[in-house]
Every structure is written in C-alpha cells, then in structure tokens.
Design a protein that fits this description.
Number of domains: 2
Number of helices: 7
Strand order of the largest sheet: 1-2-3
Largest sheet: 3 strands, parallel
Helix content: 40-55%
Strand content: 5-15%
Radius of gyration: 18 Å
Number of strands: 3
Length: 172
C-alpha cells in the first residue's frame, strides 16, 4: 500500500526550485495556498465566492477547517450555501488548470511516474498494489498509463493489479 498525502503533488517534480520562480504559477498548490492571488482569475469567474475568500487567505489558515465552519453555517444560511457552491467551482477550475499546466511543464516526468515504475519493477507478478490518495488533483491517475493502467471508468479503479482508493470526502 502506498499513501499519497498533502504535498505529494506540490513536490512531484524533483528538479523544481523550492519556492520561487516564474513557473511557480503552475505548481500544484498546498491546501493553504489554494486561494492565492495567482488564482484571482477564477474568483472573477465565480464572484459569488468573494465574501468568503479573505478568511481562506489568512496566513497559517487551515483551509479545510474554515470551509467546514462555512459548511455548518450553510445549514441555516442559504447565501453561504451559494458561496460554497462557487468555491467548489473555483477549486475545480484552479486545480484542473494547475494539473494541466503541471503535466505540460513536467512533460509527465514526475515523481509519481518514477514511483509507479519502481513499484512495477519490484513487485511480484500478480501482486496487488493499493494506491491511496488524499490529493485533490488527478496527477496520480495521469501517471498510471506509464504502468499500463487506465482509469477511464469507475471499475478501472479497482479491477487491475493497481487499485486506487480515494476517500469519499475528497469528491473529485
């Protein structure tokens, strides 16, 4: 079993500089950077999220906790519900853009691809591999074809020797 957690996508390209550079705009963000200014274009697309962006940008904020607080508020506040729906679209847009740009920037040569190739090389034939991801993106799925695994349908996630588990809280 291999578990991919916070930072796996952010650090998926070993030749990438630590924190600065012009290409920083395409690097997959850590959770506390999901609402950085580099994603202002997405706020323009989904302006209903504007009232709740500022608390999500605070230094050291736990984004998941803040969103959970807003989710509880939405039970009695229909406007908050609308704002959270806009955040979902915002996140889908920014994460999709990041992973597409990252795939192009890295030419698909990421640590995901290398790790999956190492697993392929060292595993015994017919040995099952369980991959658990807590990441919001699909960079792991983009690397799977390099080990001849396709994820075109839901069944594909569990039918091969490589089983991909995505906890239900992370609805992609």
């Amino acid at each position: 079993m291999v578990v991919f957690g916070a930072g796996a996508s952010h650090d998926s390209f070993s030749a990438y500089p630590a924190e600065t550079g012009t290409q920083m705009d395409v690097r997959p963000p850590l959770a506390n950077h999901l609402f950085d200014l580099r994603f202002a274009y997405a706020i323009e697309q989904f302006p209903q999220c504007r009232p709740i962006i500022s608390p999500l940008r605070q230094p050291g904020v736990n984004v998941e906790q803040v969103l959970e607080k807003f989710q509880k508020q939405a039970e009695k506040d229909s406007e908050r519900h609308t704002q959270l729906a806009a955040v979902r679209f915002y996140l889908q847009t920014t994460l999709w853009d990041c992973q597409q740009n990252w795939e192009q920037f890295t030419s698909g040569a990421t640590n995901y691809t290398t790790l999956l190739d190492d697993i392929r090389h060292y595993r015994h034939s017919n040995e099952k591999v369980c991959l658990v991801t807590f990441n919001y993106d699909t960079l792991l799925e983009q690397a799977l074809p390099h080990v001849h695994v396709r994820t075109n349908t839901i069944t594909d996630y569990i039918s091969s020797d490589y089983q991909i588990i995505i906890p239900p809280l992370l609805e992609r």
